[in-house]
Amino acid sequence: SARHFQSVEEIKRLLDAMAQLKLDTFHWHLTDDQGWRIEIKKYPELQTVAACRQETLVGHYSDTPQRFDATPHCGFYTQEEIKEVIEYARRRFVTIIPEIEMPGHALAALAAYPDLGCTGGPYAVATSWGVYEDVFCAGNDKTFEFLDNVLSEVCALFPGPYIHIGGDECPKTAWQQSEFCQQLMKKE
Questions:
Q1: How many CB atoms lie within 10 A of CB 21?
Q2: What is the mean pLDDT of residues 100-115?
Q3: For a FRET experiment, which of 66, 161, 162, 181 has its CA 20 to 30 Å from that of 150?
Q4: Which helix (H) or strand (E) is 45 found in, with range?
């Protein structure tokens, strides 16, 4: 859902198909560089900025030249919709594991809250695929407060035993170029 938002009804159809096949775990990818798809009440700009990209890549990433559809792609799930989907899944014996990407794949969140990055931006929600060098700034107290607040709301919503926080594909370039991060690494 992070890259291609699906309606609640589409998610329910997926859960129905999973139940028919006796699949019992749904990994719901809710954040990425290309979109933030879960309402976090403490951070409304995740819904107004991070949940919408200006356009989407058409064709393969390696196509030259790259083509885009010039159509905004927006959407997020309210916390009430999340609860509805969780209950729907529970009645079908499906556990949902939400994925909230960090510290990489955070470009959508950085577009909404640029002070969480090492450079302060400006950032934009990604319109194509790949691994981006803009990541949450390690050691920034605002970043850890943000992540703690986000995960507190996510954990309050999802009753399952796991929250996937990503952690993969996090280039360290921004940290290597940040005097703040370099000093913190030396200190710690």
A1: 8
A2: 96
A3: 181
A4: helix 45-48
Comparing CA positions, the residue from 119, 145, 181 lying closest to residue 40 is 145
Backbone angles phi, psi at 98, to 5 degrees: -80, 145
Nearest-angstrom CA–CA distance, 85 and 66: 36
* Bond preceding residue 103 cis, omega within 30 of 0: yes
Q: What's the predicted TM-score (pTM) here?
A: 0.93
Amino acid 175 reads: W
Per-residue pLDDT, averaged over 13-31, amounts to 98
Distance between terminal CA atoms of the chain?
37
Q: Would you please indicate which residues are annotated as catalytic (active-site) residues?
A: 32, 105, 169
Q: Are β-strands 67-68 and 57-58 bridged in parallel, bridged antiparallel, or unpaired?
A: antiparallel
pLDDT in tens, 93-104: 999 999 999 999
Cβ neighbours around 13 below 10 Å, total: 12
Written as six digits, the tokens of 171 are: 């280039």
